[in-house]
Amino acid sequence: MHILIIEDEKKTSAFLRKGLAESGYIVDATENGDEGLLLALHINYDLIILDVMLPSRDGWSILATLRQAGKQMPVLFLTARDDVQDRVKGLELGADDYLIKPFAFSELLARVRLLLRRAPARHSETLKIADMEIEFARQKATRSGRRLDLTSKEFALLSLLMRRAGEVLSRTLIAEQVWDINFDSDTNVIDVAIRRLRSKVDDPFEKKLINTVRGVGYVFETR
Predict the structure, then answer these.
(1) With contact defined as beta carbons under 8 Å apart, do 133 and 165 qualify?
(2) In which domain of life is the source organism classified (predicted)?
(3) Which domains does the chain have, with CATH numbers?
(4) Are 75 and 94 within 8 A, CB to CB?
(5) At what angle do helices 152-163 and 10-22 cross, to 10 degrees?
(6) pLDDT the model gives residue 179
(7) Cross-strand bridge partners of residue 163
(8) Residues of the chain with pLDDT under 70
């Protein structure tokens, strides 16, 4: 599932990105209202986490514009504005939920999962390619019916590769999507992570699914 965070508090945004990525989601984030609206209009996100007070354009305006444009992805307002009138305004504009800061990440994650289950599915909660299957909500991965013991990062990495099966993913893109870091070409963190994932996904099986494109990156495909 692909989630957009529009939040101008850097610490909150980084905290959300890290927690959601570790829970198996692909996450984009921006601190600017105009940029957030542009992203939301042109990318089919599964859910948006939206602050109210933002630079250049507030959350009310972003939500109203999205709904007027026919965008029906779930929107969760995450804001310090706790007046009843603010909550009512958000819901009347078309928000699906409203969470007040400060918040517990466990509660936010539960609300995210609930909203994604309720939403019309653009992606199945499970994804199967060849004999490899993952269940996103349960963070469960199996191959040939055998459950794989993956860490949260390994599951996020496998999810990214499978969602974009057939597409060669660069080390930079993988680092940004899974670790939320700028990739340093002098480090081998991505190669090490891929090697560990392969030891569980590919090594016990005859057919290999995670392939290297020399000098470019990695691709999940059935050859």
Answers:
(1) no
(2) Bacteria
(3) 2-118 (3.40.50.2300), 126-220 (1.10.10.10)
(4) yes
(5) 80
(6) 73
(7) none
(8) 119-125, 180-187
Would you call 198 helix, strand, or coil by DSSP?
helix
Prior bond of 102 cis (ω within 30°): yes
Tell me phi and psi for residue 37, to 5 degrees.
-65, -45
Structure tokens at 171: 């080390």
Q: Return d(Cα 133, Cα 204) in angstroms, integer.
A: 16
pLDDT digits (tens, 9 = 90+) for 36-61: 999 999 988 999 999 998 988 999 99
Predicted pLDDT at 141:
94
Residue holding tokens 């290297």?
212
Which DSSP symbol is given to 148? P
- DSSP secondary structure code for residue 53 in this structure: S
Please name the amino acid found at residue 176: E
**What one-character DSSP code corresponds to residue 175?**
I
85's CB contacts (< 8 A; 6+ apart) are: none
Structure tokens at 59: 């959350």
Torsion angle in degrees (nearest 10) through CA of 109, 132, 170, 43:
-50
Query: What is the pTM for the complete model shown?
Result: 0.59
User: Measured between alpha carbons, how far is 156 from 109 in angstroms, rounded to an integer?
Assistant: 15
Q: Could you read off the pLDDT of 132-153 as tens digits, one per residue? A: 999 877 789 999 999 999 988 8
Beta strand pairing call for 47-50 and 75-79: parallel
Structure tokens at 130: 């060849």
Task: List beta partners, residue 129.
Answer: 132
Place of tokens 């819901």: 91
